Amino acid sequence: MQKKTKDIFIIGFALFAMFFGAGNLIFPPALGQKAGTDLIGAIFGFLLTGVGLPLMGIMAVSKFGGNLELLASKANKKFATILSIVVILSLGPLLAIPRTSATTYEMAIVPFFPNMNSLLFSAIYFSIVLFFVLKSSSIIDSIGKVLTPVLLITLLSIIAKGIFSPQGAIANTGLGVSFASGFGEGYQTMDALGATVIGSIIVASIKAKGYTESKEVSKITVQAGIVAAAGLAIVYGGLAYLGATAGNLSMDLSRPELIITITAGLLGTFGKILLGISVGMACLTTSIGLTATAGEYFSNLSKGRVSFQTVSIITALISMVISNAGVDKITSLAVPLLVVVYPIIIVLVVLALLDRFIKNNIVYTGTVLVTLVISLFEALGNFNVSIPMINNTLKSLPLASQGFGWVVPALVVGLSIHLYVTVNQRQSKGRLIKRLALIKTIIK
Questions:
Q1: For the chain, what percent of residues have pLDDT higher than 90?
Q2: How many Å is the Cα radius of gyration of the chain?
Q3: pLDDT tens, position by position, 297-322
Q4: N or C: less crowded end of the chain, CB within 10 Å?
Q5: Domain boundaries, the chain
Q6: End-to-end C-alpha distance for the chain, whole angstroms
Q7: DSSP state letters, 81-108
Q8: Which pLDDT tens digit goes with each residue over 2-42?
């Protein structure tokens, strides 16, 4: 295998592992159980948002050197810095990283060691995270060569058993709107958010391998993203199928309970052990990637006054403390923040992919602004802050009931500004041509 191809696969496997957190493990089986015979439509919807959006995120930030702040500065520089800090903190020590430890504890440790102290476990967990992170030059290789194969083997073993020895027949659940249901579940993985910040360490890893030309770095990043997306699609499809063949199980089971019950039914105690390994690897690889990203970002923000190693250690310590609050508490704290941030990230990703058609950065500014305003008011609703006139207006927006009330206004504002700028530039160009022709005539 050529060096470049090998590098693409190693980086792609690392990306897969960093995207595939434990949340991604528990969503597809629940979707499959709910969809039943409507599985194909549900999977398609899930892949669109659970795989398509992260891939678009990687492609978007690769055009800006893997730098979210550089991308967001197309809207406003101060806003870009604030957004980047909020995103890094959300995916870092305040929410996502602590949740990986809490999830591992609840799904992979408690079933086997119910008396294990959570604080002791989190100390061990983050010691392992720091072991890989502080070897910063080989983070991607460590994940891509060592951790991802373990994760993939365990997941594929469970899926293969479920395909060749299904627990039951796929039933008609009467879901009906399977695509919409899958679309919403994929949206909840929030991987597009991670894609915009993980890109920085992916780009750094590619450059460390000797690829320095910006176009080549961008191309390799996208190719690695495609490898990761293919892996995610295969695993998501397999896990959703397991859920669809488990229609005999109670629909009242929580997502974690469902995947634990399915695995135990397929492989008994050995299945529980495999699931524990899968959860541990999925959470660990995600935590390593996010801790390294936080370390790099805040070290750069301080202009090197605080080292990567110091920031990484502080991130791990804060995450360790917060992780002991438990998965449910951490998840509930994340919702209002993500209601605001996630739509903005999606808008920036779409605009970045269309950047060559955008004539003026005011398109970014206007589109992001209207998205921010709508998302802020929706977030206030999570705190039961009611402003009747505004709330009624928001509820009347298309797709508002599905949580996508910002989509149509952002589309309308973005297109309107783009058309205005385009027409105005053409008129200005026309006037300039007429003036030059008049000057030529006078000179003659």
A1: 19
A2: 24
A3: 899 889 889 999 999 999 999 999 99
A4: C
A5: 3-337, 358-444
A6: 68
A7: HHHHHHHHHHHTTTTHHHHHHHHHIIII
A8: 778 888 888 888 888 778 776 678 889 988 888 888 888 88
